Amino acid sequence: MYYRYYTKSFTIVELLFVIIILSLILPTIFLTYTSIQRTKQELSIRQQLIQQSYETFERINILMQDYTIDYEEYFNRKMVGCSGTTKKWDSFEWNVNGSGYCDNFTAYGNRNSLSDSSKTDNHILYYCSSLQSQNMSSNTYTIPIVKLSNSMLDCSKGYEQQSFGQYAKLFFDVKNDTDLINGLVNDSDDEDLWKWPAAIAHSTGVQELYLISQDGRNRLYFRRKLIKQQDINGNGIGTGEQLYVLQMLRLRGFDAGTLHNFDTVDGNTNPGLYDGKIDTWACDYSQGFEGNWKEIGKTFSGYKLPKDENDCWVDIPQGAISSDAWNLVLYPDTDPYLAYKEGVQLNPYFQIFILNRVYLPARQSKIPAYTQQFQFALQTIFNTKTFYSQ
Length: 390
What we know:
By secondary structure, this protein is α+β, with helices and mostly antiparallel strands. The chain has helices at residues 12-63, 71-80, 153-156, 166-169, and strands at 67-69, 127-129, 134-137, 142-147, 172-173, 191-192, 204-206, 209-213, 218-230, 241-254, 280-284, 294-295, 303-305, 314-315, 321-331, 349-358, 375-383. The longest helix has 52 residues, at 12-63.
């Protein structure tokens, strides 16, 4: 007796049916998987952005402890201007070019253009008088006496790089020579006006932050610098993507005389040396910067005198974060401790707004086209009296 065995197979209709079902399910599975991976990467990028943004802010917060607004340098900046032709008083605005920071060099109070501007060692303070305009000669150098107008602007116009201490001098009216002994300054008729002038021309939209320690011996500055302008995220679209980094500058004040140098043969070679007044601001090379600086002497060989607007600035590490926007608001615009008659509060504060964005090279991002969408804004107010942030 014979038995016949039959092997059952799929029919064409069944195969087609399976293929149709798979064609409907597999794309959904693939899209779901891709979406999960992209969401995972987006969350990772966002987490990195938020974490690094807060770390940057926290570092700035720590650095700023015991500092207040440096009205001296803001007045100096107002006189010098920021970029191009925008300089001096009312014409000065924070019009920052593509570099992201001010191009004009202020010399941080180490130099004054009243004398020979070709020399980098000049340090002269001038005084204001409501009664006359002349120069007062001493045994070392000439002190200019500038005519004081009702608005006090005439006393300050015409001079660019300011010596450290000049801003405070503009609050005094030395008037006339009443004792006939040592010229106009330090006479009995000298008057502290307790008003004028504003150090900050425009208190909103400020692009650089200038701070000075409460004891007046250290200065700390921040700015934003453009370091790349290309197709950073690797998506092949355009070259206009800009990568900005935050930078900081540390300066220390020295009593190094009008020549900013401790190395002297005798006391007369460097007027003002060891007179108890800070007249030289230098940066410490231990910060890791490079630049075209000038040594201030063997006594402090590690400290250098900056010679241009890029000396001594160092980057604040932010990884793949770009600070695409950076705006500051400062108040008041006049040093309240020098201008109490102006009725300003005795509590300077400043507000910082930063908009950070992630830029990842193509090799780091499987979905580079999405990296430009990740941005995170931070805004903080620093009260320089009690110094808290919120």
